[in-house]
Amino acid sequence: MKLTLLFGLFLSFSMCCFAQKHTITGTVYDEANNVLANANVIVKDSKKGTITNEKGQFSMDLEKISALEISYLGFETRSIVISDEKEVSITLKSSAEALDAAIIVSEDYNRTIGCGFDYKVIYMTETYIPMKTTLFPNPSANGMFQLQLNGDFTTLTVEVYTMNGQLVQSNTHSNLSKIPAIDLSKQPKGLYLIRMNADGLPLETKKVIRS
Question: What is the CATH number for 76?
């Protein structure tokens, strides 16, 4: 009788816990109703997350009430609360913030002075064009990325950001005889920005997918 009672209590408890979780599916769009592939979908205040597929769709197993944070490069991050919904459509608003910009502005004009001599003045501003780098494999299922540098450097600083601008990792490498590795194995699945600086010079910002 005791065994039957204990088994019944365990079964009821298991069913109760199981009922508190459900699967949510969703699609992420921009303001023009275009789907956003590789958008970050993360359970707020946790390391659980995923990314949207090429159709902008995602699927996750959630607790009964969970808060999701959706982010994408060039768009404002959005948070939503999920309770009993099984399917959601999420629209992200574009952001005016740009990651990197290289602007070259030039202006010239002629001017005649009293002695009849003409001269031309040219104003020009230039920005540094970052050196290209290679990260592989990308996407990475285990979160490990190898970095290939196109140049000889002594010091390399690597910063990893989420798509909403949060810094999640920062490392400085001084021994560059070995190929530097970027370890995102403990980070949730999603899209990340890798910003690098070698010997004081900014390198090309890379986007990587932790799949």
Answer: 2.60.40.1120
Same domain, 188 and 138: yes
Q: What are the residues facing 169 on neighbouring strands?
A: 160
- Choosing from 91, 112, 146, the residue where a domain stops is 91
Q: Is residue 126 part of a domain?
A: no
Handedness of CA 138, 140, 145, 146 (dihedral sign): negative
Look at the pTM and tell me if it is higher than 0.70.
Answer: no
Q: How do residues 149-207 score in pLDDT, each as one tens digit?
A: 877 888 999 999 887 778 899 999 887 777 788 999 999 888 888 988 888 888 888 88
Q: How many domains does the chain have?
A: 2
* DSSP of 137-185: SSSBSSSEEEEEESS--S-EEEEEEETTS-EEEEEEE--TTSPPEEE-T
Per the CB < 8 A criterion, the answer to whether 190 and 39 are in contact is no
* CA–CA distance, 136 with 78 (Å, rounded to integer): 30
Domain enclosing residue 157, as ranges? 133-210
Tokens 């602007």 belong to residue: 103
Residue 63 to residue 55: CA distance in whole angstroms? 25
CA distance 38 to 28: 10
b/e burial code for range 108-122 (CB count within 10 A of at least 16 → b): eeeeeeeeeeeeeee
CA–CA gap between residue 85 and residue 81 (Å, rounded): 10
Q: Say whether both 75 and 139 belong to one domain.
A: no
Helix (H) or strand (E) holding 72: none
